[in-house]
Amino acid sequence: MRKKMRELFLVLLFLVCLLNGVGAKRVVSTLRLARIQKHLDRINKPAVRSIQSPDGDIIDCVHSHKQLALDHPLLKNHMIQRLPSKRPRFYGERLISNSTITKQAWQNWHHVGHCPKGTIPIRRSSINDVLRAKSLYHYGKKRRRQWPPTTTSTTTRSPNAPDVVSGNGHEHAIAYTGTDQELYGAKATINVWEPSIQVGNEFSLSQIWVLSGSFDGSDLNSIEAGWQVSPELYGDSRPRFFTYWTSDAYQVTGCYNLLCSGFIQTNNKIAIGASISPISSFDGNQFEISILIWKDPKLGNWWMSFGDDLLVGYWPAELFTHLTDRATMVEWGGEVVNTRSDGKHTSTQMGSGRFAEEGFTRSSYFRNLEIVDADNSLSPVQSITTLAENPNCYDIKSSSSSEWGTYFYYGGPGSNPKCL
């Protein structure tokens, strides 16, 4: 009886895929559907409450002790840390933006519901989400970068430039710290846009990287958070709050958001992977998110807060090798994937799709760059280096002010007469 029910279920799944246009492109075998469904059963934990978001997402409120993170073999005996032992103390005079057109962005699903205490909100994964990926194995993962990295840019690199940013079609406009510092976290405020994406397997993101390990090997540790537009991952072109982690240079470990075990969420208000709304407009209001990542000085877990110091959760120290000690580099900025699908440079936009020189209300920016030191003090960044592999496609310009501290504008349209 159970076997017949399972077969009937798979047939229904097959029909659903046909109705959603999947079968128009390729036939999906019932065996593959069964494997996908088994994976979804593992990552979509039972919900206390489910919320239908206006953007089409389903947000499941899952009991915090049932979250996928705790399935990780390294976290079998892990006790959830409810709060960090200490939050970073700001060193110096806190700068506050007085602009009336910068506002905090939030998330769409909050308009229709909330998750009760003791649960965490998780964006439900669907069969179509998995089918858009290259394979079930690749679902929720960044594609591995080439080693050694390559670049078509004529930009002269500093000896300490983070080579990890190049290769395999990934292009960047970033600011980064030197490798001579002891780093225990980073913060920034980022305005949010909706860049256009040329083809479905490309993406555009703006994020913070907290890094340690070798840039030319297979042991790089990276913690990442920001906003991204990725039609392949999410099925639409909305900007979404996201995270990522890896402890082996994107080879096997880690994933986006909560699509694999690892990141432990403690907050019932933020859904990682959910869309951000409202977003910035050209010559209009600028909507921002603030992200802080730092290492707990007592237990060594890497915590993340969103917005006005709203704790989201943490990456346990057990996940990492080099980051169990400290970070050796922090990067802030934008990244796109250029697949050259039509034989020339992609027209996928970075940030707002405008170059850095267009400035406030037109270009994307990171402002109030800050780092956390060994004393758990949060202080303004005094010195950064900037890098854009293809400045005719995407560029970056940094500066400082009494209101925004160290900041930079970045981005670009991709393909244009000078970017081929």
TrEMBL record:
Residues of the Neprosin PEP catalytic domain: 164-420
Biased composition annotated in UniProt, kind: Low complexity: 148-159
Keywords linked to the UniProt accession: Signal
UniProt superkingdom: Eukaryota
Gene3D superfamilies named among the record's database cross-references: Outer-capsid protein sigma 3, large lobe
Region of interest called Disordered, as start-end residue ranges on this chain: 142-166
Keyword Signal: yes
Pfam family name, one: Neprosin
Protein known as: Neprosin PEP catalytic domain-containing protein
